[in-house]
Amino acid sequence: MWGDVAIAFLLAFIVAFMATPYTIKIAHKIGAVDVPKDERRMHKRAMPKFGGPAVILGFLVSVIYLLIVMSMEGTISLFGTENYAMQLLGMFLGIIIISITCIIDDIKTIKPIVKLAGQVLAAIVAVAFGVRIDSVDFWFISTSELSEIISAIVTVVWIVGVTNAINLIDGLDGLASGISVISAISLLVIFVLNGSPTIAIILITALAGALVGFLPFNFSPAKTFIGDTGSNFLGYAISIIAILGVAKTYTVAVIILPLIVLGLPIFDTIWAIIRRLIKGKSIKAIFKADKGHLHHRIVAKGFSQKQAVLILYGISATFGIFAVILLDSGIWKALSFLLMVIVAIGLGYRNFQAEHSDSDQYECIECKYIYNPKFGNEKAGIKPGTPFEDLPDDWVCPVCGEGKDMFQLHQ
Questions:
Q1: Three-state DSSP state, 9
Q2: Interval 82-102: pLDDT, tens
Q3: How many CA atoms are closer than 13 Å to the CA of 224, on its beta-carbon side?
Q4: Which domains does the chain have, with CATH numbers?
Q5: ω into residue 392 within 30 of 0, thus cis?
Q6: pLDDT tens digits for 358-374?
Q7: d(C-alpha 51, C-alpha 223), whole Å
């Protein structure tokens, strides 16, 4: 199996890595470019946002190749009692629906309700082809088997929910793709420890490989964005693979593990819904974008884009490791690990904050210009003695024109 896992990762990595530069060129030709038109966007220049197809291509090439080879070898059964062939067909058809919907959105921008309809349709197709959450076993809820209607509803809600969770957290260079890599690796470890079906292990490995191939072009400073096509695909794929990975073991621990692994984007999405409902006082407000996401709040605290992304990577990795320890060693060791992490972060954060002062200098990562509070930027109306954190949001580098988000603390 491990040879197949290695092939799944490397083939997806190579295809995605080689395809991404072509998607950058295509993005400019078809108009799939994100132009910063409002304060919510963290970038200050037009960026191609068509990286998703490269990730999808890497994933599909790797998976389809291995499915064919492993079926010929007899190491995997696609038409057995589980009928994985039908479930995979439903997943692939759903990917096509998601891709068509979101490619249109990346080029022309469509209404959120239309995109949601595409997500729901893709989820329904997957369910119709056999992708199901058949039973639930929590501390307070225990069902041997859900009714067909309830099972379908729960599965659709799960798929659409995770799809939107990954989509909504896509707000900084490398954030959605990096968190998805961490989630995929965490799920891979969980699947191996749990004795999950080989098909789930191959799928999650291929997804991780495709993302690692794309990430060099997406990490700050990004050359391209993954776009709605990519972020929606990631959420859709992860949600279905998580179902396939725990399908035979619906115990309380195993059911909750994917929720823990995806804890960061799920929490951010739930809080976004609550926040928008309270602020807008209507269902329509849920679809209205704002600057209240976790990554926006971290950047607002004075951290650079890269620092914010690394902080969120760390949080996501903590969730993933917690889930693995919970499965392998039990709740008490998992909780003690979490407590140690919280203490370490608390101490580290205090020290980090203490090191910063009003005299800190910041360097533009694009042209290496250094903003010195002592001198300010008088041509732009910035008086001497103005700390970097107090600069206006629309202030730009006087040399290359990059925004504040492209600056980092000068060591």
A1: helix
A2: 788 999 999 999 999 999 999
A3: 31
A4: 2-348 (no CATH), 362-409 (2.20.28.10)
A5: no
A6: 567 888 877 888 888 88
A7: 10
